[in-house]
Amino acid sequence: MTICKPSALPTSWEECTARGWAQLDILLVTGDGYVDHPSYGVALIGRLLLSHGYRVAILPQPRFDTSADFSSFPVPRLFCGITAGNLDSIVANYSGNGKVRDTDAYSHDGNPWRGAIQSKTERRRPDRATLLYASLARSVFREVPIVLGGIEASLRRFVHYDYKQEGLRSSFLTDAKADILVYGMGEKAVLEIAAVCRRKSPFSNIAGTCQRLTDREMSAHFPDFEQKNTKKYLVLPSWEEIGNKSDLFLDAEIDLDRHARACSLRIIAQRQQTHWVVQHPSPPPLTPEELDALYSLPFTRRPHPPEQEIPAYRMIRDSVTIVRGCSGNCSFCAITRHQGPAIISRSKNSILSECQRIAQMPDFGGTISDLGGPTANLYGTSCNIGLCKKRDCLYPKLCPNLRIDEDSFLSLLKEVSKIDGIKHLFISSGLRMELLLQTPRLLETLLRSHTPGAMKIAPEHSDEGLLNLMHKEPHALLENFVGKCREIGKKIGKKIELTPYIILSHPGSMPKLVEKLGKDLQRLALKARKFQDFTPTPGTLSTAMFVTGLRPDTKQAITVPRCHSDRQKERRLLEKYCQRKAPGKKAFPNFKKNDPGKR
Ligand code: B12
Q1: Domain range spanning residue 421?
Q2: 419/466 same-domain check
Q3: Pseudo-torsion of CA 126, 130, 133, 134, nearest 10°?
Q4: Has residue 247 been placed in a domain?
Q5: Of the residues 87, 158, 428, which should be mutated to test ligand 1's pocket, given the most ligand atoms within 8 Å of the CB?
Q6: Whether 482 and 360 share a structural domain
């Protein structure tokens, strides 16, 4: 099969003219080094627009003390799109404790600075990059619509918390000189925006977007808004009301979470100073066929310019996304509010052909590093009753209506492993334990052949009260799972390593609970190598708990380790346990042989 050498999207006007372009339709600005790979949001959006005939260029990590990099391009004919990159710029630039990161996985050489790493002169990506890039674009491309998108803008579309600023901020639409904001996965919205710009029509009710409207525009867009029909509108507490009573921030976040889970078609409105920030309903998620088409676009799967060394790229270079969406609804994760709870699985043939393309790349090393997504083993799952409003398929226990298709994942692993040139096939994305306990053949196959070193599991904690606040499965399930894995290990004659991911200092936590966690992990002979301090990132329920000190269900007060010393204390405590040797006592008091944990 001959492969014609695709080329990445142009990143300079010279590269555009080299393609014979006399004009540019769309310029996409990103805070990351540019990698033409489907794991990169801006690359996917750029390729999609190009495949629809638009002339699209990418401006990666422009300087922000001058508009020169923006004006090095002609004024785009349709719009200028802005994203901070694959992560929120504050998450990329600062640790959860607000310390400046001295590495940047999404920049050349992992160097967050434009000059030598020691210079620490100018950052490659500014804080709140979306805002700065939008104002630079506005200053150069005066009449052209500015379109915000990507994880940062998406999760900061309403009043949100900024842990670097240690305070609440209004929507990025309020602060940015921009015309419209694309939230969530942006394929359908960005194509509609391009078509509307081509027709030179005003932006109105585009699914998957947010707009900032004056009172007059509000009544023009929604003549019946004043009747406050709650079936049609969800009106959130306003910026002013939240400013006067911060508890209302939790109410707003609970409403947004419920709305996202239910994939509700209500229009959301939040008053912010003199305007309304309005969220139009989200478009239906992509169909599996549309997702397949997206991943079959001719990505080079390489950085551009090619000489860049981007650490995050190394992690995902030979990884394949097989599923979108997650219905785990963990309180500290923003996926529900961004990718959504609907599970979309790609077809086997589409995944196989992507793996074949990777295996035929000249410098392929023989290893497919991941067949994944937010949660790899939600692949192939579906719902018996179609769609419910709660979409809480995994919590507090597996929903009887969740259909798990063990065979489809097993046959996918088998067929990918048979592809010429593929020596190793790993699953590195998150795996849900309660689902694996329902698929013992898949679990055994993963432990036997598809786990790079230790299997990563995400219990996050062992205290039932905290697990409830985190919306995570009960501790007994971890015991069951570890017991099952060790049983399989004996059967296949392989020492099974499990790496538990742990979150410390989550709202509701306190030192005695870390002690308990340390003891529980010891008893299970699990070494916590990966534990992170809770980071109050925008758009999660846990962040709302962090801000208000209240639990979402009862609004009762909870302890929140906010100050550095409290967070350090938790970390030191668990580190102490991880150093200690595990005591001899019986490890799995609750593990019952051959009991996969009834549902
Ligand atoms: C897979 C994944 C990973 C993978 C790969 C990440 C990657 N792609 O490079 C790995 C495991 C490496 C990873 C690591 C981390 N991750 Co991660 N990750 C994810 C996950 C589950 C999916 C990301 C993904 O592949 N998306 C696919 C791309 C195509 O989607 P996208 O970027 O959202 O782009 C779409 C839209 O945003 C929009 N769009 C994008 N750009 C633009 C531009 C314009 C103009 C427009 C209009 C639209 C638009 O359209 C795109 C296509 O639909 C997300 C959850 C999510 N996104 O919902 C978390 C997530 C991004 N990760 C997160 C975090 C915190 C991390 C880590 C920091 C964790 C840690 N402590 O180490 C690390 C940091 C990365 C690193 N390399 O060091 C957080 C980020 C929180 C935040 N607010 O920034 C998320 C949101 C999960 C969460 N906890 O809430 N991650």
Answers
A1: 318-427
A2: no
A3: -150
A4: no
A5: 87
A6: no
The token pair that represents 345 in the structure block: 């699985």
Q: How far does the centroid of ligand 1 lie from the alpha carbon of residue 39, in Å?
A: 8
What does each C-alpha distance from 154 to 84, 130, 147, 256 come to in angstroms? 11, 11, 12, 13
**Mean pLDDT value of segment 116-142:** 91
User: Quick check: is 236 in a domain?
Assistant: no
Residue 5 has a pLDDT of: 65
Number of domains in the chain: 3
Check whether 588 has a pLDDT greater than 70. Answer: no
Residue 540 alpha carbon, nearest atom of ligand 1:
90
In a domain, 163, yes or no: yes
Are 161 and 546 in contact by the 8 Å Cβ rule? The answer is yes
The closest residue, in CA terms, to atom 60 on ligand 1 is: 87
Atom in ligand 1 nearest the alpha carbon of residue 430? 11
Range with lowest mean pLDDT among 224-228, 318-322, 463-467: 224-228
**Residue to substitute in 86, 183, 188 for testing ligand 1 pocket (most ligand atoms within 8 angstroms of CB):** 86
User: What's the whole-number mean pLDDT along residues 218-223?
Assistant: 95
Instruction: Tell me the C-alpha distance between 590 and 576, whole Å.
Output: 26
Instruction: Please compute the mean of the pLDDT values over residues 183-194 and round it to a whole number.
Output: 98
Question: How much distance in Å is there from the Cα of 168 to the middle of ligand 1?
Answer: 22
Atom from ligand 1 closest to the CA of residue 30: 43
Domain-embedded: residue 262 = no
Angle at 262 between CA 549 and CA 229, to 5 degrees: 90
CATH number at residue 530: 3.30.750.200
Rounded to a whole number of angstroms, the CA Rg of the chain reads 24
Query: How far is the centre of ligand 1, averaged over its atoms, from the C-alpha of 556 (Å)?
Result: 32
In contact, 383 and 393? CB cutoff 8 Å: yes
pTM of the model: 0.94
Residue 3 has pLDDT above 90, yes or no: no
Same domain, 162 and 77: yes
pLDDT tens-digit profile of 526-542? 988 778 999 999 999 99
Instruction: Specify the pLDDT at position 6.
Output: 73
How far apart are alpha carbons 337 and 264 in whole angstroms?
12
